[in-house]
């Protein structure tokens, strides 16, 4: 925590006043990143066709999941549950919004389920990145499967 305060250019007291534990700091970083990803949904939908918005949003989510995976080591056992409880509902809501926009545009099949889609994202962030990142190719297959028959 002292190294973090030093790198941030603040005193240790300031850091501990705002984040009394390492777990509190890690959770705040996680929440900030999650909020950024969730807030990008309306922007993407305004700028892109729904299926492209879904693709870009998913790649961003997968990249964030990969980066944040290592944060788990800094958390106690109850923190993982807290993260899951705080993030599941808003992430499902974001996916629902993206899929619904695709359904209205005729680009996504009517039976596409947000919970199923979220499960696929777990496979995407775990996809091998060496010698190349497989997630974009796997996501392309998933998005093709979402298209109406």
TrEMBL record:
Identify the species of origin: Cryptosporangium japonicum
The segment(s) forming the HTH tetR-type domain are 1-37
Q: Which PROSITE patterns does the entry link to? A: HTH_TETR_2
- Keyword Ribonucleoprotein on this protein? no
In its keyword annotation, does this UniProt entry include Cytoplasm? no
What is the name of this protein?
Answer: TetR/AcrR family transcriptional regulator
Under the heading InterPro entries, the entry gives: Homeodomain-like_sf, HTH-type_TetR-like_transc_reg, HTH_TetR, Tet_transcr_reg_TetR-rel_C_sf, TetR_SbtR-like_C
Record keywords: DNA-binding, Transcription, Transcription regulation
Pfam families hit by this protein: TetR_C_43, TetR_N
């Amino acid at each position: 925590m002292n190294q973090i305060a030093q790198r941030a250019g603040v005193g240790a007291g300031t850091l501990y006043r705002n984040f009394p534990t390492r777990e509190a700091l890690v959770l705040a970083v996680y929440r900030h990143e999650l909020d950024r990803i969730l807030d990008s949904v309306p922007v993407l939908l305004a700028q892109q066709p729904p299926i492209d918005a879904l693709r870009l949003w998913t790649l961003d989510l997968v990249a964030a999941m990969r980066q944040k995976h290592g944060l788990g080591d800094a958390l106690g056992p109850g923190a993982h549950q807290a993260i899951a409880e705080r993030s599941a509902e808003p992430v499902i809501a974001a996916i629902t919004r993206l899929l619904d926009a695709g359904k209205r545009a005729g680009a996504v099949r009517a039976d596409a389920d947000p919970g199923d889609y979220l499960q696929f994202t777990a496979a995407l962030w775990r996809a091998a990145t060496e010698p190349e990142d497989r997630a974009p190719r796997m996501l392309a297959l998933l998005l093709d499967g979402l298209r109406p028959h």
